[in-house]
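Marked as duplicate of an earlier ticket. Keeping the data here for the record.
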Amino acid sequence: MKMFYFKKTASTGRYEINLFGIKMKFNAGRGQTDRINNLLYELADPRTLQNIKLPKILSIENSLDEIIASGKSVARYGDGEFKLIMGENIGFQKYDYLLSKRLKEILKNEDENILVGLIDIFGYCPNTYMKKIAMLCRETLYEHINFSKTYIESCVTRKFVFDDQEKGIEYYNKLKSLWQDKDIIIVEGVGSRLGVGNDLFNGAASIKRILCPIRNAFSKYNEILAECLKQSKDKLFILALGPTATVLSSDLTQAGYRALDVGHLDTCYETFLRKAKRFVHVEGKVVFNSERYNCLIKPCKDENYNNQIVSQIK
């Protein structure tokens, strides 16, 4: 009997080593691949899935239908809000304990008058960046997500790639119906200039604007909220102010207003109109963080826009 041999088994691809009668079998370089391949079968087993929780999130299309049909406010969460909950700074908003606390509270919100949006990344997620965010934040977020409620999809106002242009036009027309013939108050960061240079809000009966800091807006939150509360309750609020908008939407809803946190809607619409696959520079508007940091935005020459400004909080 051989006291030592080393061989590969053709049928399994495994290696076998015999050292003084002690036999060992192993997969050289294949262990990780084999575990991943087998994981698919483990996940298909109901015994594996019975302890896995996923938040209930509507599709983008169903989310838009729900917003239109319900008449409710909207507060949205994205990767920035997730990071602030985790205690991190983000590009245009420093971590603030109170902001983080409020974001945690609203995530569990049971107010029937507001729809809370989450990005659908907690199960299947093809986006590499968002997959990393899910893995980083899941444990903490699961402490605050309300698994008994149904969330809308946050990307309902961030969609700009469609199967064809006609479907995109139809989608944006549905969005525009939310403020058709309504008096709206746009609360935005300086330089965001929602609707300037496009027809996004052409159907609104009237437009007023409250301009806020483009960075660290939450540091002026009390002033922003006080200015909003001066407006009559028949006005519809359109909010584009990062994580501050999530909190503001909740507080305005509790005060009897309807508020829609639309985030990057204008940027997405501009991207759609240009038939682009990713955000592009838009002359006269802040789109990228570098434009926020370097104060590259120039004064707006659009007199309609300038006349719509009722307040600027610096």
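See parent ticket for discussion. The longest helix spans residues 31-44.
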